[in-house]
């Protein structure tokens, strides 16, 4: 498969961004390739197109499947598995947010809640330290409640909400803390 210079630039950059987000470069590049592709691709074609080892492609495809970002599909007359990425950017965003919440934030909240319970029996824990721990817990719980409120919105509704930008903040007025 021959990539256009723009497609190649996009895929390379997506790989770079993936490493900054904590995702393996090849995983991110394969996701970008499948997202931009107008047809399902098989593993050998992905390996050839990106010039990466077939074993690396196989591992990366399993990772993308575990995130729910790609799916296996079949092509008539070809016994190989072909892969296709979600094409709706809002669905991709939703899947990534849900997976990151499940893999990163939920375990963190569990530990923070355990720490909050254990703090009462920890005589060596200073009050100021406990207050900071409680503040982080409260912050993450507010964020997760907001996420739960918004995750079920239709993409069009969420898009309208996000386009409102700072209008809501200006409508609500300054917070007392903003006056400091």
Automatic annotation (TrEMBL):
Record keywords, A-Z: DNA-binding, Transcription, Transcription regulation
Q: Looking at the keywords, is Amino-acid biosynthesis present?
A: no
**Any GO molecular function:** DNA-binding transcription factor activity
Cited Pfam families: MarR_2
Report the InterPro entries cross-referenced here. Answer: ArsR-like_HTH, HTH-GbsR_regulator, HTH_MarR-typ, MJ1563, WH-like_DNA-bd_sf, WH_DNA-bd_sf
The HTH marR-type domain covers 22-80
Looking at the keywords, is Ligase present?
no
Q: Into which family does the record put it?
A: Belongs to the GbsR family.
Return the PANTHER family for the record. Answer: HTH-TYPE TRANSCRIPTIONAL REGULATOR MJ1563-RELATED
Q: What is this protein called?
A: HTH-type transcriptional regulator
- Upper taxonomic lineage: Bacteria, Pseudomonadati, Pseudomonadota, Betaproteobacteria, Neisseriales
């Amino acid at each position: 498969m021959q990539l256009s210079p723009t497609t190649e630039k996009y895929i390379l950059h997506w790989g770079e961004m993936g490493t900054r987000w904590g995702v393996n470069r090849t995983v991110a590049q394969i996701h970008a390739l499948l997202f931009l592709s107008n047809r399902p691709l098989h593993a050998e074609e992905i390996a050839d197109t990106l010039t990466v080892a077939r074993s690396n492609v196989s591992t990366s495809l399993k990772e993308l499947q575990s995130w729910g970002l790609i799916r296996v599909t079949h092509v008539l007359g070809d016994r190989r598995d072909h892969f296709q990425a979600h094409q709706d950017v809002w669905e991709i965003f939703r899947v990534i947010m849900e997976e990151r919440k499940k893999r990163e934030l939920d375990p963190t909240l569990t530990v923070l809640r355990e720490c909050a319970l254990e703090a009462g029996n920890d005589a060596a824990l200073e009050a100021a330290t406990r207050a900071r721990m409680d503040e982080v817990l409260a912050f993450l719980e507010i964020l997760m409640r907001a996420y739960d409120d918004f995750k079920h919105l239709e993409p069009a509704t969420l898009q309208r909400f996000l386009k409102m930008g700072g209008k809501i903040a200006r409508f609500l007025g300054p917070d007392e803390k903003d006056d400091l």
